Amino acid sequence: MLIVAIVLGSRLLRDFDSALLPYAVATVFLAFGVAYRYTVWISAPGARRLFRQGWRSFFSAANFRKAPTALPKMTATYLGFQKFLGARSHARWAAHQLIFWGCILAALITFPLTWGWFTFTSSTGSGPGYEMRIWGFKVLGFDSLNIVGWLMFHGLDVAAVLVIPGAAYFLWRRMKDRGAITGQRFAYDLVPLIALIVISVTGLLLTFSSIFLHGGGYEFLAILHMVSVVFTLIYIPFGKFFHIVQRPAAVGMQLFKYTSRRKEGDEVLACRRCQEPIDTAPYVENLQGTMRDLKLGFDQGPEYCPRCKRVMRGSAYLTHVKKGFK
């Protein structure tokens, strides 16, 4: 489907830039990898139940009538601004926001250009007046010498400036924080950050070479930049970056929890041990169904609050494991 979209969107390849062919091929591999990995992911009982329940809530007309602002609110707070990260650390939240919006900006520019959907043309051949066309249709005319033109041609530089400090912070944290060091893996945790920094730095160096060095070293930097981008695109479905694809499903689950609380008659269940409120009955039943699918043999687990679960695990350890050392 992506190949067909590239061919049609570039007007049967008339607007396709052959110099960007490696990037386009990498996006095709990316699409295949995401489709394959996502299919494998939702084949697991827990993910499949989350996936179905999330989309059921998303398309529910009753939920929309009861809470019409719920979906935009969840998308903005949970997916866009990731407020849940702010509860853990303001520094981590700020760094993640820099990476998130930098990558979003880079993707919005790079992908359409790579596929030949966006083109920039000048009626005089040398500017400064340019036209931006999407699928061959003119959508915007601008002067390349003013601020709009500068942002148009340096949008990827802006994205790089956002990504570098965010990725550098997480890289520094993974070298200094004892908790992060204990569970980290080089290929899973460090390679994505290094890849983001290499892509951003080489992209900025391309601009530096063209402006200040009159193109000196440009070919080498272009190849290095291309290799790093292609590697990262192919890596996305099989590494830590896959959470980008998974996150919208979590938004659907948050929507399910939110709308369940607003339904009349859906009381909030209390913990069986301390009587503190846990969540609504539909949400607890959904967790119990997942545990039955996984054959864990502990359907009562979701009926306890997190604190009581820890206490029960500690008591079981003292009773069945520690007892053997007396």
Keywords, please?
326 residues, mainly alpha, 3-stranded antiparallel β-sheet, 67% helix, two-stranded antiparallel sheet
Lay out the secondary structure.
Blueprint: H1 2-9, H2 21-42, H3 45-58, H4 61-66, H5 70-80, H6 83-86, H7 90-115, E1 118-121, E2 129-134, E3 137-143, H8 147-153, H9 155-176, H10 178-183, H11 186-212, H12 218-235, H13 243-262, E4 268-270, E5 277-280, H14 281-293, H15 306-321
Antiparallel strand pairs: 1-2, 2-3, 4-5
What would your notes on this structure say?
The protein is mostly helical. The protein is built from 15 helices and five strands. A hairpin with a 2-residue loop joins strand 2 and strand 3.
- Percentage of β-strand residues: 5-15%
Give the % helix. Answer: 55-70%
**Roughly how many Å is the radius of gyration?**
25 Å
- Low-confidence spans: none
- Intertermini distance: 65 Å
Largest sheet: 3 strands, antiparallel
Shape: elongated
Per DSSP, the total helix count is: 15
Alpha-beta classification: mainly alpha
Q: Spatial order of the strands in the main sheet? A: 1-2-3
Let me know the number of strands: 5
The string of secondary-structure elements, in order, is HHHHHHHEEEHHHHHHEEHH
Mean pLDDT over the residues: 84
